[in-house]
Amino acid sequence: MREKIVIAFIVLAGMFSLPILAQGPPPPPPPPVGSDSEPPCWPPPCIPVNQGVVLLLLAGTAYGLYSVRSIPHKE
User: Fold this and answer.
1) What is the 3-state secondary structure (H, E, C) of 6-50?
2) pTM (2 decimals)?
């Protein structure tokens, strides 16, 4: 009896969740007033890849090398 209740609950939950999955995405927001349809920063030279990212990559590489070298070698 308990198995039938669990199966019925799963079937009903699945049936009631299907309309939620069938909903479409919301429409995109309207563009700001007084602007063209292009993004605010195009072409890509204004993408923020600067010294901070380079320093973060260098620090990660240095830490990785330190971690690999600090592991004791088994002979």
Assistant:
1) HHHHHHHHHHHHHHHHCCCCCCCCCCCCCCCCCCCCCCHHHCCCC
2) 0.36
N- to C-terminal Cα separation, the chain: 63
What count of residues does the chain have? 75
User: In this structure, what token pair is assigned to residue 15?
Assistant: 């049936």
- Find out whether 42 and 48 touch, Cβ atoms under 8 Å: no
CA atoms within 13 A on the CB side of 30: 3
At 39, the pLDDT band (50, 70, 90 cuts) reads: low
Tokens of residue 72, six digits: 């004791």
The span from the CA of 75 to the CA of 65, in Å, is 20
